[in-house]
Specification:
Elements lengths: L1 H17 L1 H15 L13 H28 L26 H17 L2 H30 L1 H9 L9
């Protein structure tokens, strides 16, 4: 039992390091350090404390949502967030009851939180690019793949749960 847990834990860690860690830590660090001279900073236009506090709040909310989603993928879905090691079961509980892609929304919140915290136009652009690329990826690849893997269950889920924004009740 212990060996299986370590193997599963290593698979989750690898998928997190290779995907969201690169998107949320590596690329923003590179942008902030390598392109600082062309980065428009709006910290002088809004109070620095307000921007940082809001960025921190959004970032922490995104991190908590991300952790919850990874845990659900492991426990309920029996897989990881990586496309090469996907869930074996459809995850439609927790935040997945309200939107189909809360993990991507969590990463987007982390990126927007960073953009606000640092007051960086480059990070704002990076977060928008991330969202556009993921939207296209979900339309072209992810959702058709989920329909093939989970069949009618995913089609019903897709019909009843919105992609990005929860429905107002």
């Amino acid at each position: 039992m212990r060996r299986t847990f370590l193997t599963t834990g290593a698979r989750h860690l690898a998928s997190i390091v290779l995907l969201p860690f690169v998107v949320v830590v590596v690329v923003p660090t590179w942008l902030l350090n390598s392109w600082a001279e062309v980065d428009y900073r709006w910290t002088g236009r809004i109070p620095v404390f307000a921007g940082r506090a809001l960025g921190l709040l959004i970032g922490v909310a995104g991190l908590l949502l991300f952790i919850w989603c990874v845990a659900l993928f492991a426990r309920v879905g029996r897989g990881t967030l990586a496309p090469w090691d996907p869930t074996k079961r459809l995850v439609a509980v927790g935040p997945y009851r309200h939107i189909r892609n809360p993990m991507i929304s969590a990463v987007a919140a982390l990126l927007l939180g960073e953009a606000l915290y640092f007051g960086s136009a480059l990070l704002t652009g990076w977060s928008m690019l991330f969202m556009v690329v993921n939207h296209v990826y979900f339309l072209v690849s992810e959702e058709p793949g989920l329909e093939r893997r989970f069949g009618a269950a995913y089609v019903d889920y897709k019909r009843s749960v919105p992609r990005w924004l929860p429905r107002a009740k």
